[in-house]
Design a protein that fits this description.
Blueprint: E1 2-8, H1 24-39, H2 44-51, E2 53-64, E3 73-83, E4 87-96, E5 105-115, H3 126-131
Antiparallel strand pairs: 1-3, 2-5, 3-4, 4-5
Length: about 140
């Protein structure tokens, strides 16, 4: 499943040169992963309350290819490429909405599943495993 989430670049997302500050690409990707979970039927606050589960970024590898600029309309993708007992690996890309043949930024983000109360690794809840698919 290749999930897509639209994002518009606001002035606050840019640096003094008018391009998206590098760390903000990670924020855009985080939002897309959150919306991906929501699309699958899981709200993060409910995961804490009902499953004592949170997800945290374990590792990130990104390539910045071309800058996004103020007021650009972007598409952020989130594709699940690996599911393990206590982690998921996402491939994520950011494109201009009208130029989806060239990624502005792309990378792989590993998400760890943790006990919400003690921040130790735990198995991904079965309810999520049932719907998490790797294409």
């Amino acid at each position: 499943m290749n999930f897509e989430w639209p994002v518009r670049v606001y002035y606050e997302d840019t640096d003094s040169g008018g391009v998206v500050f590098y760390a903000n690409y990670l924020k855009f990707m985080e939002r897309a992963r959150t919306e991906f979970l929501r699309h699958l039927g899981f709200e993060q606050d409910e995961l804490i309350e009902q499953h004592n589960t949170i997800f945290a970024v374990r590792s990130v590898q990104l390539d910045y290819n071309s800058p996004a600029r103020f007021n650009d309309q972007l598409v952020v993708t989130a594709k699940l490429i690996e599911v393990k007992k206590a982690s998921m690996l996402f491939e994520q890309k950011i494109f201009r909405i009208d130029q989806q043949d060239t990624a502005l930024c792309q990378g792989e983000i590993r998400i760890a599943c943790l006990h919400a109360d003690i921040f130790k690794p735990r198995a991904i809840p079965e309810a999520i495993m049932e719907v998490a698919r790797v294409d």
